[in-house]
Amino acid sequence: MPARSAAAPVEWLFRGDAARTGRSPHQGPAAPRRAWSFPTGAPIFASPAIAADGTVVVGSLDGVVYAVTPEGVERWRYATGDAVWSSAAIAGGVVYVGSSDDRLYALDALSGRLRFAVRLGDCADPTGAGPEGARCDVDGSPAIGADGTIYATADALYALTPTGRVVWRAALGAHAFASPALAADGTIVVGAQDDRLRAFAPDGTPRWELVGGDDFDATPAIAGDGTVYAGADDDQLWAVAKDGALRFTLRTRGDLRASPAIAADGTVYAASFDGALYAVRPDGTVAWAFRAGGRIHASPVVDAAGVIWFGAQDDRLYAVSPDGQARAAVPMPGDIDSSPAIARDGTLYLGCDDGSLHALR
Length: 361
Hints:
The protein is mainly beta. Helix content is about 0%, strand content about 40%.
């Protein structure tokens, strides 16, 4: 039997790693100011992805995936068939990104040339409105396993080879807007719009299922000990042990649609529609809460210095120190639902409801 080729190196994953911890190895700007803005045709919900050469890739609700140089110049664009909510993953020089046209796309990172487009699900109308029209949308960000397997969500959880062949499909009870997260042992965890958080083995076999009080639209984050943290539309942060046993819930005063971030010391940062960022200890107690001026949909990012960066629906980008003190509140030209991405040189990129990709230095 011929030796199996090594998996392509992963350049970028939404939330920083396959476990979706939201930690960045880079430090954000000390005094953030907008360096440039790149306009698209609609609001940007997706988080930017940064390729190995510094190119920034982001999808827009105008249905187009854009690649922009670190200087803010367009390198290429690719039009899908519908809105792009999905944050891109990059591995081996290939951009993997989903679209609401029910397809997972693989694009050449240098040229934007289409490598493949795989339709996921069997929805009759791939671009229709309503529950049936949205059931098969590929809205989550793909995860990439250590062996190169791509995991994507739509009407189900799919495992695909790097060339786009579907290896297996694990049924979900409804559409999954959230992205899958991968534990160190290969377990795949994903939430769905049937009020359930599920875990699967690497071969697609179900491992456990937890029933919440409403949709799990937030991407889960997995700590080093295997604990899964996930927000839900029932206003709660759920903490689940790696065997599926409930550890605790923390109730806020609004939906939790942002993915939690997990700091190196185990502190969990959870953002709520009630406008607060909560610092939660691993035992479920709250260390502090920082209040923004509007709902928080964007997932927070923890930089190398421990500073927490997030945007809110009050047209501001915030930087908060690990003790809960404000470091910066940068006015932006629209609500921010896009999670920030920090480059090696400290530049922070994020999308905005004004339809632009912004660079802050």
